[in-house]
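Lab notebook, bench 4. Continuing the backlog of folding jobs that were queued last week. Each job is logged with the same field layout so the records can be merged later without manual cleanup. Today's entry covers Sulfurtransferase, a 277-residue chain. Filled in by technician R.K.

JOB TYPE: sequence-to-structure
TARGET: Sulfurtransferase
LENGTH: 277
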Amino acid sequence: MRSSDGIVSADWLRGHAGDPDVRILDIRWYIDGASGLDRYREKHIPGAVYVDHDTEATAAGSGGGRHPLPEPDTFERAMRRAGVDRRTAVVAYDDQGGFVAARLWWTLRYFGHQRVAILDGGIPGWGGPWESGEVRVPEGDFAAGAPRADRVVDYGQVRRLEPGTVLLDARPPERYRGDEEPVDPKAGHIPGALNVPWERNVDGAGRFRPGPELRAMYAGLGIGERTEVVAYCGSGARACHVILALEAAGYPGARLYPGSWSDWCAHPDAPVEVGQR
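JOB STATUS: finished
OUTPUT FIELD FOLLOWS
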């Protein structure tokens, strides 16, 4: 796997089954509170190790939005437990079009691990064979590097974005417009943001659209090769799917607002916009 490979197919993964340098990570998670671990135990891709989105891949409950970035030592322990080495090629998957897996993809790169991709189509795209129970693997020697501060923005930085920066909101249109808000205390979006629901990145089977299609879609939003882009969503997961799609489209370098709307709307002085731009 090259460091530039952010998406791999089921055929690629089958061709590397049993490769000691490839580690498969299952990171199923559900906003309704369903247990990803239970579903993993019922059925998962052979050899896959489960990673908990809330306690290992993010830092839920620690402030800065609903899913803040994990501390380096917490993430390092989680990846070592999952058998990830410094040189391991990681393939992450979920069963919801890849938005949870994309957050893990992004976080690994944030801590300096470039050999990581998500499985295109996830569980539905794999189709079998399956394995049940839990996989135990030898501890890896993963080392979390210095966080890539140039890949993130915080609340204050979003308030002061440079002119010409494109701010993308990856949430559903009804949440962006402020028609409804089922999770956070305020409805609407960050002023100036454009709505690009993450689901537009994939087809009906949950696989990423071809690069040229993605490029045309994002170019239609005013994005070019030198455009500064910041992505956000509800709590910083779905936005990573947009960042991955931008890379597949040939527009690398977008930054993440990890706290996203859950952080923005927690600030009493934060302006809010409603309706469609």
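OBSERVATION: Strands lie at 7-8, 22-26, 49-50, 89-93, 116-119, 166-169, 194-195, 229-232, 255-256.
SIGNED: R.K.
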